[in-house]
Amino acid sequence: MPEPSPIVILLSVLLVVSIPLLLHLVIYSTTSDTLPTILLIGPSGAGKTALVTHLERGRPSATRTSQTPYTVEVSLPVKTPVASSRFRSPNDPTWEVTKKLLIQDTPGHGKLRHYAMDSISKPQNFQGIIFVVDGADLSSEASEGARQTAEFLHDILLQLQKRATNTKSSKAPKQMPVLIAANKLDLFTALPAPLVKSTLESEITKVRKSLSAGLLDSGVDAKALDAAEEQDWLGEVGDGKFDFSQLEEFNVQVQVLGGNVTGVDGSDIRQWWDWIGSIL
Description:
The chain has a six-stranded mixed beta sheet, with helices on both faces. Helix 4 links the parallel strand 4 (126-134) and strand 5 (176-183). Residues 26-32 have low confidence and may be disordered. It is of the alpha/beta class and 280 residues long. It has seven helices and six strands, in the order H-E-H-E-E-H-E-H-E-H-H-E-H.
């Protein structure tokens, strides 16, 4: 039986070595056009733009009210783990690319919130959503701020819920993690994260009741009323209290974490970085 020629042996070795490498590059290579994107939403004054500059530059800087959406590329801190890279070697040439993402900031002014709502309606490329709130603006002394924030958050979450209720496909929509970033917790008047959560849930409960009462006062017939409530009711239908966990059946996972972009003792956004890494 003739022995294989050196050329055949060399080609075989090259194929054995190159095919796994090519597959690896195809699966794990990432370009700036396909970087995961996180949508940043929240009312004016909550600190969204300051957070964007901090995420981008590693430090907060002076900002002004956003008028249009804009996107920046950021990289996770070296020590922040990435969920998708838990089985990847640090020597992998694509290791650093997995720690990059895009942050899309949206205006928080009431007249400009349509930008956020338009983005929510097309969430295909969004890896998650960060809703920034002012922890000091939710205290009992500032109930108007709590009400307005809850109304905005209600509309965002309802839009996400409708991805599941309005779909014509039998396949459930992809998981959409939502971080409620309770900002300015360095201030004495700010509520801690657990109280921010319970306050927003209570205020959203009021928003649901108010919207339901408005439908009743509109004089629509009972059948139309039931249909409208089913379409625009956030969470579980009924008179009970709203809870963020009610959205899990719609593949919306809500988490509330505290921090501060600026402060006398410096910033603290470590928990927000960790959340970002956990969804990448």
